[in-house]
Specification:
By secondary structure, this protein is α+β, with helices and mostly antiparallel strands. The strands form eight sheets. Strands 18, 19, 20, 21, 24 and 27 form a six-stranded antiparallel beta sheet that branches. Strands 3-2-1-13-14 form a five-stranded parallel beta sheet, sandwiched between helices. A hairpin with a 4-residue loop joins strand 4 (118-128) and strand 5. The longest helix has 26 residues, at 533-558. The chain binds one RNA strand of 77 nucleotides through helix 6, strand 10, strand 16, helix 12 and helix 15.
Length: 681
RNA sequence: GGGGCCGUAGCUCAAUCGGUUAGAGCAGCAAACUCAUAAUUUGUUGGUUGCAGGUUCGAGUCCUGCCGGCCCUACCA
């Protein structure tokens, strides 16, 4: 068989959040496929990177008061730790914010320009002045211009169903800053992808590169009409790469993100001295992308169009998978089913999830359900009960003797399992891991039955039949090892441990064809622990607690409260309740307010505490309030403050207000229902 | 609002191009066994294929409508 050269990518995780068990469906699936190819002896490399650009990252960095670079470096570290924890092994993990990516972006951009595909159009968008950014539709809320329903998003009304542009909204509000955005126009760059329509028609419909559902979807929804121009630029400010021949404009994140696949390869080539063109400009290299169904559009239309124009390898296959549900529902933070990779690893072995996903993944794009009860049952029953149990029940009988020197007659069991090799491999090849797991587990069933039929535990008692016992164990352990070879892409760690147990590491798929004989067998240690229900419970509990903590934080950050005020005027020393009750705070009504002409800052207020009780108070609020607007309103005053003689008269109390002074003075007002004279407790 | 995918046993999934009596695994039930991490082996229960129509000699599969779930939604379909 000639060696294939295969370049594999998984979608780039966005550097704006943690990896969770939903993401892992894709990374585990891809990693299994890559490990399978490598085990089969193919020249296979797996590239990924963090997707780091765009408005969301820019806004989050601002909110956290640090640079985008600091944010993405931080997230990158966490992402890599999560992937490592789940035994997901990349040949290179890059970043879209790298010099390599900038270089490849330039190259592809020049190609698009040279092909005459780029042109400029004016685009009108809302602009958030405070946040200094253009607003995507989802960042704008306002009142529907048709039905007047309040609180609708920028593109359509979910009350009356009418669609419009954000600029049509009555009273638009930026959800980023709660301020009113203004309408601004900017020049955007567009790619006329319609020029590649015939190519895309051919490429998507050839049956070679896409699942049929996907091909049909594209045919029915995009390819039947002229393809729309793709808006590929965003005006400053934007976190990304500035477009070289269009100063002030940046490439839209979806332009440079998939280019990250190529850039990550380039980075790897620079590190290892590999030949870049051999991987990306060579018809013998197969490029395989693994993605979720949500980003089909970008990977099956724009991406091939870009590659085609720039003369890179086209994807041999885009493998599209569905989404994860937990217990039949969308992952839910409040139910504790929104589980981060790191949270999972605090409680459970990554191999469990790898196996469970493998046992449920098929070649189609159906959603995958993580049923927590089934998860426990399946892992315990399949991996512990059937597979590992084979070693567990046989290894100790041959701890002293090792395996027989020649492979005994097993009635064709090993040969049969060896003959399943290509069927199992074919299932892996088309990502029918579910089918592959079924095949392998059927082999385990046969092996367990063989063991039961032979009843070796009876031989143990008969001194004269020890050779027979060794033979049965040799068979059982070889059938076990064969299964482990087949499971190596899914369970690399178990495979490694098995290699240690039998003193023969698993390095190649073909090892399933030849029995192992004459080696020593090490002392058996548990290769795998059963999942306890309480571990899963503890995991969901932690996920729930995490979600609650972040919800509280999010609620606070929604108001964009900074710590500035507190910093400028630090907290006073602690006081007792006794200290506090000495201060008699009362609700008061301002019944008269006059300017004090000779004073710069003071207004003279007459406060009523109800009945006949009056106070004359001089308040330093002249620069913030007009006397007329104060008359009649309720305020809070300190009523038992020792009267103080001032130049203009005696002040008999104090009106409560916050703010640094000058124009920034904010009087306290009690809520509706308060009446003058009430004490504030 | 528009659009896509899906709905088969208690659970998770099969079923070629429309073709015989809709199949597996897990769970459940019964038994055997005791080497093994309460593991294993044998037998077995379980179905009006979401609902209502239609096309056909024949429908899980094709068509229409409805119900439910998931997902997408770019100045668009």
């Amino acid at each position: 068989m000639t060696q294939r050269r295969i370049l594999v990518t998984a979608a780039l995780p966005y550097a704006n959040g943690d990896i969770h068990i939903g993401h892992l469906v894709e990374y585990i699936q891809t990693d299994i496929w890559v490990r399978f190819q490598k085990l089969r002896g193919q020249e296979c490399r797996f590239f990924c990177a963090d997707d780091t650009h765009g408005t969301a990252i820019m806004i989050r960095a601002r909110q956290e008061g640090r640079s985008e670079e600091a944010l993405i470096a931080d997230v990158r570290e966490k992402h890599i730790a999560d992937f490592t924890g789940f035994h997901i092994e990349f040949d290179n993990y890059g970043s879209t914010n790298s010099e390599q990516n900038r270089k490849v972006c330039h190259e592809i951009w020049s190609a698009l320009r040279d092909a005459g595909l780029v042109h400029e159009k004016e685009v009108t968008q809302l602009f958030d002045v405070q946040e200094n950014t253009f607003l995507a539709d989802r960042f704008v809320k306002g009142t529907c211009p048709k039905c007047k329903a309040p609180d609708q998003y920028g593109d359509n009304c979910d009350k009356c169903g009418s669609t419009y542009t954000p600029a049509d909204l009555t009273d638009p509000i930026s959800t980023l800053s709660n301020t009113t955005p203004e309408v601004r126009t900017a020049n955007h760059l567009f790619v006329r992808i319609e020029d590649l329509h015939p190519f895309l028609e051919e490429w998507t419909q050839s049956g070679q590169h896409l699942q049929t559902e996907v091909a049909n979807y594209l045919k029915g929804h995009f390819l039947g009409d002229p393809l729309r121009d793709w808006d590929i630029s965003r005006p400053a400010p934007y976190f990304g790469f500035e477009i070289p021949d269009s100063p002030g404009n940046f490439w839209y994140v979806w332009f440079d993100a998939p280019i990250g696949y190529i850039a990550s390869t380039l980075e790897w080539c620079e590190k290892t001295g590999a030949d870049f063109d051999r991987w990306w400009r060579n018809p013998e290299t197969e490029v395989h992308h693994f993605i979720g169904k949500d980003i089909t559009y970008f990977h099956t239309l724009f991406w091939p169009a870009m590659l085609k124009t720039a003369g890179f390898n086209l994807p041999e296959r885009v493998h599209i998978h569905g989404f994860l549900t937990v217990d039949g529902e969308k992952m839910s933070k409040s139910k504790g089913t929104f589980v981060k990779a790191a949270t999972y690893l605090n409680h459970l072995d990554p191999a469990c999830l790898r196996y469970y996903y493998a046992s449920k993944l098929g070649p189609r794009l159906d959603d995958l359900d993580l049923n927590l009860e089934e998860f426990i049952q399946k892992v315990n029953s399949d991996l512990v009960g059937k597979v590992v149990n084979l070693a567990s029940r046989s290894a100790k009988f041959v701890a002293d003797t090792g395996l027989s020197d020649s492979y005994p007659d097993d009635g064709g069991l090993f040969e049969y399992a060896a003959s399943r090799s290509e069927t199992i491999a074919a299932a892996y090849e088309v990502c029918d891991f579910n089918g592959a797991m079924r095949e392998v587990l059927a082999l385990a069933d046969r092996a367990n039955k063989y063991w039961d039929d032979q009843k070796p535990w009876e031989l143990k008692k008969d001194e004269s039949r020890q050779a027979e016992l060794q033979e049965i164990c040799t068979i059982a352990l070889n059938l076990f090892r064969q299964i482990i070879v087949y499971l190596t892409p899914v369970l690399p760690q178990l495979s490694e441990q098995t290699g240690e147990l039998l003193n023969d590491p698993v390095t190649n798929w073909e090892q399933a064809q030849t029995p192992l004989t004459g080696t020593l067998v090490n002392k058996f240690q548990h290769l795998f622990k059963r999942i306890e229900e309480k571990q899963v419970q503890a995991m969901t509990d932690e996920a729930k607690a995490e979600a609650e903590a972040t919800a509280t934080e999010a609620a606070a950050s929604e108001w964009n409260d900074t710590g500035d005020a507190l910093t400028q005027e630090p907290m006073s020393a602690e006081c007792t309740i006794d200290d506090f009750v000495k201060v008699d705070l009362r609700v008061a009504r301002i019944v008269a307010a006059n300017s004090v002409p000779e004073a710069d800052k003071l207004l003279q207020l007459t406060l009523s505490l109800g009945g006949e009780e009056r106070r004359n108070v001089f308040a330093g609020i002249k620069s913030a309030y007009n006397p007329e607007e104060l008359v009649g309103r309720l305020v809070i005053c300190c009523a038992n403050l020792k009267p103080r003689k001032m130049r203009f008269g005696t002040s008999e109390g104090m009106v409560l207000a916050s703010g640094p002074g000058g124009k920034d003075v904010f009087l306290l007002t009690p809520d509706e229902g308060a009446v003058p004279g009430q004490r504030v407790h």
